[in-house]
Amino acid sequence: MAPFHAVWLQYPLVPAVALVLMGCCVHALLHGTSRRLNLLMAAVTLTIPGQILAALGAVGADRLRPYKLDLYIYGIDRLLGGHASFGLGRLVVGHESTIVFLALTYQVLPLAMVAIFAGYLWHRPEQEAWIMASVFLLSLAFSVPFYLLCPVCGPAYAFPGFPALPAGPIVPHPILLDAPANGVPSIHFSTALLVLWYGRKLPLGRSLGAAYVALTAVSTLASGEHYLFDLLAAVPYAALLVALGERIARRAGGIMIQTWIPRAYSRPC
Prior knowledge:
Elements: H1 2-8, H2 13-31, H3 35-64, E1 67-68, H4 70-79, H5 84-92, H6 96-107, H7 109-123, H8 126-149, H9 155-158, E2 175-176, H10 187-199, H11 205-222, H12 228-264
Antiparallel strand pairs: 1-2
Helix pairs in contact: 1-6, 2-3, 3-7, 3-8, 5-11, 6-11, 7-8, 7-10, 8-10, 8-12, 10-11, 10-12
């Protein structure tokens, strides 16, 4: 899977963020600034620091839990009816355009969150936008304890020959891996589920959200970043965040965010 990881290194989020910010500034120059536009620019600007913090959390989990449980999750996937990640990985090998498309799907997750936030700013009550943003933030914060509880890296890291299945039987035991322990649950997939959940209230949000969930599932598995079990674990995790996160956000999170972001981004471009 060397081509897949080569695409990873290109990291398209930075130029994408720059283009969106340039578009916002041009819009402000032509039509004037507004509270909603300033809030959107704040959200876009925070995507890269948010990615860095998430990566640092995964690295911290790796340092605290160097022995990973990948072989146990590999065995669970076999009981689930096969190894979906290995099968999809073999399907995309040699198809460069498919690899690039799936890699972009994987990398631009923060912009999908920003797009939903923008949709809520323009089509839903602002309080709903703050609650949704708080749930997204809590999802990232809560992921680290889960990573520490069940440290898993993904088949591309645990099996050097991925996407080829390992030869012979695998005896489950903890293994020492120098890779981020960010497998269980798949935050990429749980966030895509949240995008679908909140997007259902927006025009075309249900169909676009469903397509994004499907593409995220394929990209996370085919890249070897996740096992099928990781994606299944993301479903109750997302449900937990919706139930618990919205309650917390209504009491504190949304109010806290509203107090400092509008002040920091109240000036026009």
